[in-house]
Amino acid sequence: MAYFESVSKISYEGNNSTNPYAFKWYNPDEVVAGKTMAEHFKFSMAYWHTLTAGGSDPFGVNTAVRAWDHLNGLDLAKARVEAAFELMDKLNLPYFAFHDVDIAPEGSSLKEFYANLDTIVDLIEEQMKATGKKLLWNTANMFTNPRYMHGAATTCNADVYAHAAAQIKKGLEIGKRLGGENYVFWGGREGYETLLNTDMQLEQDNLARMFQMAIDYAREIGFEAQFLIEPKPKEPTKHQYDFDAATTIAFLQKYGLDKHFKLNLEANHATLAGHTFNHELRVARMNGMLGSLDANQGDMLIGWDTDEFPVDIYDATLTMYEVLQNGGLGKGGVNFDAKVRRASFEPEDLFLAHIAGMDTYAKGLKVAAKLIEDRVFEDFIDKRYSSFKEGIGQEIVAGKATLASLAEYALNNDTPRKNESGRQEWLKATLNQYILAE
Ligand code: XLS
Ligand code: CA
Ligand code: CA
User: Fold this and answer.
1) Which residues are listed for Mg(2+) 1 binding in this entry (predicted)?
2) Is residue 187 within 8 Å of 235, Cβ to Cβ?
3) How many Å apart are CA 107 and CA 310, to the nearest integer?
4) Is 62 helix (H, G, I), strand (E, B) or coil?
5) Which of 347, 300, 407, 250 is nearest to 21 (CA)?
6) Can you tell me the mean pLDDT for 30-44?
């Protein structure tokens, strides 16, 4: 059965096309900076937003109209698998990502949840074999069920901690079975609401212990996925421990876990942390920790995590600039952790939204590649820091300078070098020129 009858396979028609159901920029076979677009992106569908969510918000119930609405329980879960693969096929999305609870009902016990997962994973595995679609990553949802009210790996309740471990264990087994290329940890409730009731030290130690146990178990079962932590500063918890890239990297280094992890960075989480997305990518890249991307965007006028489909070409360009400078994303990819707006309730909107996101990233990639080819920022930056390439600057960089040697230099230097303009406005105008021209 077809779940999206009104939509046929989407193909690339070029940027003069007026067909809403066509790619204008995303041309999977087009080679940019030495790789095809398909290889650059590894675009992935987020199961939770596309198959499971229905448009509800804190003020209203679901609005989405879906061909599987009349079903329940395992029948619903099975229909969603079929719909997922139909959508990925029609949109030419090679990858997908899911939480355990997105694909199968939890039932009334952990045993039942495991059994339901096995049933659905069988089906997913069959579909993957038939279609060649791949798993970018899976993860355990340890934030929706009421048992996680105090957190999962940072809960005050040891039995809940054990339940979280059981979910992760199963998640790793599923990832291994489906050939998942990455495995994600997002700590939605790993943080605190008030320090008045919180043993922060114990919570963070326990979080590190959980990560270590996951590393050990993955090794034991031969699951070679890249482990990813996804930072987010808040929401649902007031303060989350994996606040941003820098905080997460420091945490991993403190506990000696950094070799085992990279970061899955999400655009809307960056802005919630008061950063740009490219700031987060840069911090990860500098530390060799750029793993994968959750592509979306927030709204400038709304303070929460709106998970909108990315349509901002400026941001997409700077994002792809970092990705290219990183030499790509390795095992990672670009996952659309994005949802259609509540009023975009028709099934067709799922297609139009993904097309918008894929085209935006494709255009961003092309502009970024051209900027790098022309060394627009590199040459400027090289020149800006050229005083560190010779004389006293070179001594500083080589680690040969001391406060005393610098003071002596400053005292004897009657004609200090003049500062030069940072030319920010010109650089931004040049970026605009590239976006408009490419
Ligand atoms: C929520 C997160 C979540 C993770 C996976 O804000 O983005 O969906 O990507 O648990
Ligand atoms: Ca995410
Ligand atoms: Ca989000």
Assistant:
1) 230, 266, 294, 337
2) no
3) 35
4) coil
5) 347
6) 98
Q: How many C-beta neighbours within 10 Å does residue 260 have?
A: 16
How many whole angstroms from its chain centre is CA 255? 23
Name the pLDDT band for 303 (thresholds 50, 70, 90).
confident
| Residue 134: strand, helix, or coil | strand
Distance between CA 181 and CA 291 in Å, rounded?
11
pLDDT at 162: 99
Q: Could you tell me the distance, in angstroms and rounded to a whole number, from the CA of residue 266 to the centre of ligand 3?
A: 7
Q: How far, in Å, are 176, 241, 259, 279 from residue 247 at the CA level?
A: 29, 8, 16, 13
SS3 label, residue 143: coil
DSSP letter string, 232-261:
-S-SSSSEESS-SHHHHHHHHHHTT-GGGE
The mean per-residue pLDDT over the stretch 183-200 comes to: 98
Which residue is closest in CA terms to ligand 1's atom 5? 186
CA atoms 328, 329, 331, 336: torsion sign: negative
C-alpha to C-alpha distances, 208 to 72, 99, 191, 252, nearest whole angstrom: 38, 21, 13, 8
pLDDT tens digit sequence for 74-108: 999 999 999 999 999 999 999 999 999 999 999 99
Catalytic residue among 40, 49, 100, 102: 102
Determine whether 150 is an active site residue. no
| Three-state SS letters, 342-373 | CCCCCHHHHHHHHHHHHHHHHHHHHHHHHHHH
Return residues with CB closer than 5 A to ligand 2 (ion).
266, 294, 337
Helices (H), 18-157: 37-41, 47, 73-91, 100-103, 110-131
pLDDT band of residue 438 (cuts 50, 70, 90) is low
CA distances from 121 to 19, 108, 245, 280, 331 (A): 36, 19, 32, 34, 22
CA separation for the pair 332, 309 (Å, rounded):
19
Q: Of the ligands numbered here, which is closest to the C-alpha atom of 141?
A: 1
Instruction: Express each pLDDT in 250-279 by its tens digit.
Output: 999 999 999 999 999 999 999 999 999 999
* pLDDT > 90: percent of the chain: 99
Q: What are residue 191's phi and psi, to 5 degrees?
A: 175, -155
99 included as an active-site residue: yes
Average pLDDT over residues 215-237: 98
